[in-house]
Amino acid sequence: MKIIAFQGEHGAYSESAAIEYFGSQIETLPCESFETVFEAVEHGIAHQGIIPIENSLAGSVHQNYDLLLSHSLHIVGEYHLRIQHCLIGLPGAKIKDLQKVISHPQALAQCRETLKRMGISHIEPVYDTAGAVRLLSHQSDPTVAAIASRRAAEVYNMKILAEGLEDHTANFTRFLILDREPIDPPHFQAKTSIVFTLINRPGALFRALAVFALREIDLAKIESRPMIGRPGEYLFYVDFLGSTANNVVERALENLHEFAPMLRILGCYPSHPLPAP
């Protein structure tokens, strides 16, 4: 049975994404941190790992960009999970009696306006959405609730008080699948992720992006991250549509490598389309 590492407790959105992507015939391995997910795959404790990389409301998970660079794993897939937050309480709890809501900071931020309309102003961040439900299950205070997934409520036998708590329905998280070995996806559906550095001079970024534009390679995302210990210098993470086995893409990367001091291919993998809200 394939073992898939994820960050969080059983019932976390990452676990839900793993089950939707791989199917139910897997064993999920909860990890305390994103770093531990990478290590579990690198050391062969898990066959593959799954990590969130960006949310359509809260933005990028910057820590995971840094971990992609500091580890030697390959991106072999992506998956967009529709995030639907539930307000979860103890059996017998009622919304009108709630005084405090706990959850991961991003989940709380994504439900801020809804909680305000419900008259709930006391919120408390914890390390994980599913972990918030686990903490709740060990309490006996019906005035405290958690924000997490329906699956988390089922895992810990808690009561769903309300569903669709997110302020915007177009709430998706993009997850990446990690493996020790790269794959060669079909050309017609391939996406490639790279990271590179540039010498800080006028027009450097324009020149870098031009190697793709001139060859009509569709850029899906660009993200910059400061280089640790080198103020004013940046790492550029780029996703584009196309396979590294394609001659046009190969020439573009060769061209980029001519003036990028560092260029690394993080993975070439099947593109997963963003579902409708």
Descriptive report:
By secondary structure, this protein is α/β, with parallel strands linked by helices. It has three domains: 2-83 and 171-179, D-Maltodextrin-Binding Protein, domain 2, CATH 3.40.190.10; 86-163, D-Maltodextrin-Binding Protein, domain 2, CATH 3.40.190; 187-270, ACT domain (Alpha-Beta Plaits), CATH 3.30.70.260. The chain is 27% helix and 33% strand. It contains nine helices and 15 strands. The chain has helices at 13-22, 34-42, 62-70, 105-110, 112-117, 129-137, 150-155, 204-213, 247-257; strands at residues 2-7, 26-31, 48-55, 59-60, 74-82, 86-89, 100-103, 123-125, 144-148, 159-163, 172-179, 190-197, 219-226, 234-241, 263-270. The strands form three sheets. Strands 1, 2, 3, 4, 5 and 11 form a six-stranded mixed β-sheet that branches. β1 (2-7), α1 and β2 (26-31) form a beta-alpha-beta unit. The radius of gyration is 21 Å and the shape is elongated. The mean pLDDT is 94.
Provide a concise account of the structure shown.
This protein is α/β, with parallel strands linked by helices.
Computed CA radius of gyration, to the nearest angstrom: 21 Å
How many separate helices? 9
Report helical residue fraction.
25-40%
What CATH architecture label of the largest domain applies?
A: 3-Layer(aba) Sandwich
* Uncertain stretches: none
**Into how many domains do the coordinates divide?**
3
Distance between the termini: 33 Å
CATH superfamily of the largest domain: Periplasmic binding protein-like II
Q: Give the mean pLDDT.
A: 94
Number of strands: 15
CATH class of the largest domain: Alpha Beta
Shape descriptor: elongated
The helix/strand series, from N terminus to C terminus, equals EHEHEEHEEEHHEHEHEEEHEEHE
Largest sheet, if any? 6 strands, mixed
Strand composition percent: 25-35%
